[in-house]
Amino acid sequence: MSAFLIVAKEQTYSSPRQGMDDTIQQYNKISSLFIQDEMKTVIKDSIDETIGSQQFQHDKVEHWTNGVGESCIKRLAILNKPFKYVVTTVIMQKNGAGMLVATSGFWNKGTDGSNTIRWENKTMYVIVTIFGTLL
To answer: What's the CATH number where 60 sits?
Structure first.
């Protein structure tokens, strides 16, 4: 009786398609994250575009509030991420009065999130919050 030992070397073949699939999966993972720095940039750019260096004027508050919110939504859409977004904007004249803003959410902490930015000049406060939940 004789015994034979056959050893086969395992070879891994990676097709260009497989590499592309891996890249797509990595992109999808990154694109499905709520990234705080992106939201901060969206908010600050929207405020700068809408309000800039203007001083508080009561008759412009509604226009500014809508403008900041709409600008944020447009900028978020350009990011092309698979999220539903909610944007809130509060504008308050600086007059010595206090203000408290609080938010809470029940969601997947791994993918969903929120970011609140307080912006101010000599005459007003602007508080913008973006909530994002993965689709």
So the answer is: 3.30.1140.40
Residue 99 is assigned to a structural domain of this protein: yes
Q: Looking at the 3D structure of the chain, how many domains does it have?
A: 1
**7 found inside a domain:** no
Query: pLDDT tens per residue, the chain (135 residues)?
Result: 444 444 444 444 445 555 555 554 555 555 678 888 999 999 999 999 999 999 999 999 999 999 999 999 999 999 999 999 999 999 999 999 988 888 888 999 888 999 999 999 999 999 999 999 998
Its domain, for residue 109, covers: 36-134
User: Has residue 111 been placed in a domain?
Assistant: yes
What is the 3 state secondary structure string of the chain? CCCCCCCCCCCCCCCHHHHHHHHHHHHHHHHCCCCHHHHHHHHHHHHHHHCCCCCCCHHHHHHHHHHHHHHHHHHHHHHCCCEEEEEEEEEEECCCCCCCCCCCCCCCCCCCEEEEEEEECCCEEEEEEEEEEEC
In a domain, 104, yes or no: yes
Query: What global pTM score does this model have?
Result: 0.77
